[in-house]
Amino acid sequence: MKVKKILVSQPQPSSEKSPYYDICAKYGVEMVFRPFIKVEGLTAKEFRQSKINLADYTAVIFTSRTAVDHFFRLCEEMRVKVPDTMRYFCTTESIALYLQKYIVYRKRKISFGKTGKLDDEQLMAALIKNDKEKFLFPISDVHKDDIRSLSEKGLDVTKAVMYRTVSNDFQPGESLDYDMLVFFSPAGIASLKKNFPEFDQDKEGICIATFGSTTAKAVEEAGLRLDVQAPTAKHRSMPDAIEAFLAENNKD
Q1: Bridge-based pairing state of the strands 207-211 and 180-183
Q2: Which domains does the chain have, with CATH numbers?
Q3: Of the chain's two ends, which shows fewer C-beta atoms within 10 Å, N or C?
Q4: How far is it, in rounded angstroms, from Cα 128 to Cα 107?
């Protein structure tokens, strides 16, 4: 099947050097960037139902910039002053640097890991060194983070749902006028089924591409056909996988 129009369920790349644009130029395809999902924060009223008192915590663990934004947003909305003594533990240095949007960056109270994982050796060492702290862990309603490794070290960690992932609804009567749909999370597949309950992949002749094993599994569970998958041993990125598919199927 020849692919001419692709819907990528992510925000449009900010850089003109994106490999997606290179694919468009090389194969003469059109790419539309439109997320199938969006993140919205819990209101202060909704968060209060969790019975979590933000002022009780002396440290925060962040795994994303989104978590950083919603933590400080809720503190402001609930009129909780974040003390200067608060310690921050981030899974990456980029998240740690992002904290400068809200606080004065001081290395003595900010730690981060190298791998982006909670059980990162460098991050874990910093957490254990501060094992007397009371840790808050801001997360989404569909988080995958397992804190057992932290609890096993005797750390006092409380998960706090501060934002959620919801379907980014299409307009009534809007059609899926594409040859390929590209997804990056199971929530994107759920949004597809919600917005287009009568979606017939074979009838409409649409290919589906996914990034990550959990997204691929969601396609299978939805009774859909997976045509392109990344990462694999041959194709580490989504653009690589798409280009390989186009090279094979868009031959003149």
Answers
A1: parallel
A2: 5-36+169-249 (3.40.50.10090), 40-165 (3.40.50.10090)
A3: C
A4: 17
- Give bridge partners of residue 39 from the DSSP assignment: 165
Residues 74-113 pLDDT 10s: 999 999 999 999 999 999 999 999 999 999 888 779 999 9
Other Cβ atoms less than 10 A from the Cβ of 187: the count is 25
Torsion angle of C-alpha atoms 91, 97, 100, 104, degrees rounded to 10: 90
- The 3-class SS string of 92-148 reads CHHHHHHHHHCCCCCHHHEEECCCCCCCCHHHHHHHHHCCCCEEEEEEECCCCCCCH
| 237 neighbors 231 (Cβ within 8 angstroms) | yes
**Sheet containing strand 156-167, strands side by side:** 37-41, 156-167, 134-140, 59-62, 87-90, 110-112
Terminal Cα-to-Cα distance of the chain (whole angstroms): 11
Q: What residues contact residue 73 under an 8 Å CB cut-off, 6+ apart?
A: 41
Count how many Cα atoms sit within 13 Å of the Cα of residue 164 in the half-sphere of its side chain: 8
Q: Could you tell me the pTM of the whole model?
A: 0.70
Helix axes 19-27, 238-249, angle to 10 degrees: 10
**Six-digit token pair at 109?**
């109270």
